[in-house]
Amino acid sequence: MKIGLLGHGVVGSGVTAITDSCAVKKVRRLEVSKILVKDESELTDPRCTLNVEDILEDPDIEVVAECMGGLEPAHTFVARALGSGKHVVTSNKKMFAHYCEELFALAEENGVSIRYEASCGGGIPWMTNLARVKRLEAIESFRGIFNGTTNYILSRMAETGSEFAENLAEAQRLGYAEQDPTDDIDAHDVKYKTALTAVKAFNTLVDLDSIPTYGISNVAAEDFSWGKEHGLTLKLLGAGKAGEEAVSLYVMPVFVKSGDIFANVNANYNAVQSDSRTLGEAVYIGQGAGSLPTAHAVVQDLLDIYQGQDSENIAPKHLPVNNDSVKEQFYIRTQRPEVFAEVAAETAGNVIITKEISLSEVNRLISSAEDRSLFAAIVSR
């Protein structure tokens, strides 16, 4: 099976490293025949090309693997590939979260499949396992540490008592964080993965902007000190719960109890959990990013297409996001504590611990506080 590879950076180079060297007979039949690269400096392989038409117009190429990242031109290239009757595998969570409805429809119209295991969870077979659970029963809820960069930063802060900025710089030095880390630290990356998990787990499409999303750029050592005093560890989680007329989805730091399995997932590891009636809580832990772990997921999708395994027939329904049912205590550190006075259970300087209230109410109060330095987290009970 001939494959056209879009992008030969971190993930794309991992794909060729696996397909070119793997001794498994079936994988050896996955032939990356052409590779789209950005500029002449990347023309390091005779298969490389600067012209995407060499891939999209090649009738011998059956599958396009998109590992470019970003919205455009990735979206346009994937749409064209599907429209021309080529299967697609993508690792691009940002692009796919924005355009999955359109791309599912194009795949259906043209009798091909689009697979996206690598877009969420890196090397963890998260989407595959959600699909397996759904063969037997509905998935009721999920939660997860979906981002290795932020988990590394939070783990280091918990271990050392140091501040956010120095740990972000260390994550960048080690290659865990991009030079522009906005998507990671402001939790947009987790939002995309949370939305895609809702597509797979609940067969539901939502407006990305309707997912409350709180990152870690304002986290401070004092927040970890408070957590330690209360036997809690801080993690950034994406979570969702199914509903008939609406779904609950959010991305937010959470103070988890020391006995929670997520409390012990450190460094740049990811951990994701689904909950269903008979299986109960199923947890998957592994490398959530990186060249070879993510490429591993891409190659698994390519192998599924080669073996003719049916892709899930997706016809997602649109549902609104409603977090009225998410009722928790919240940790709020703010320069405007008076805004939260009516919901405060405890107050210590500029830190408020709220009564048990809904996430919807907290969103409203945070918005009205207009405090750019505010840090908010759920407090597990």
What does this structure look like?
The protein is of the alpha/beta class and 381 residues long. It folds into three domains: 2-122 and 291-318, 3-Layer(aba) Sandwich (Rossmann fold); 138-287, Dihydrodipicolinate Reductase, domain 2, CATH 3.30.360.10; 323-381, no CATH class. 35% of the residues lie in helices and 25% in strands. Strands 7, 9, 10, 11, 12, 14, 15, 16, 17 and 18 form a ten-stranded mixed sheet that branches. A six-stranded parallel sheet has the order 3-2-1-4-5-6, sandwiched between helices. A two-stranded parallel ribbon has the order 8-13. The N and C termini lie far apart (52 Å).
Assign the CATH superfamily of the largest domain: Dihydrodipicolinate Reductase, domain 2
The geometry reads as: globular
Proportion of residues in β-strands: 15-25%
What percent of the residues sit in helical stretches (DSSP H or I)? Answer: 25-40%
What kind of oligomer do you see? Answer: single chain
Structural class by helix and strand composition: alpha/beta
What is the CATH C-level name of the largest domain? Alpha Beta
Q: Which blocks of ≥5 consecutive residues have pLDDT under 50? A: none
Q: Calculate the terminal CA-CA distance, rounded to whole Å.
A: 52 Å
What is the CATH architecture annotation of the largest domain?
Answer: 2-Layer Sandwich
Biggest sheet: strands, sense, closure? 10 strands, mixed
| Computed Rg | 22 Å
> What's the pLDDT, averaged over the residues?
95
Number of domains: 3
Strand element count: 18
| Secondary structure tally, helices | 13
Can you tell me the CATH topology of the largest domain?
Answer: Dihydrodipicolinate Reductase, domain 2
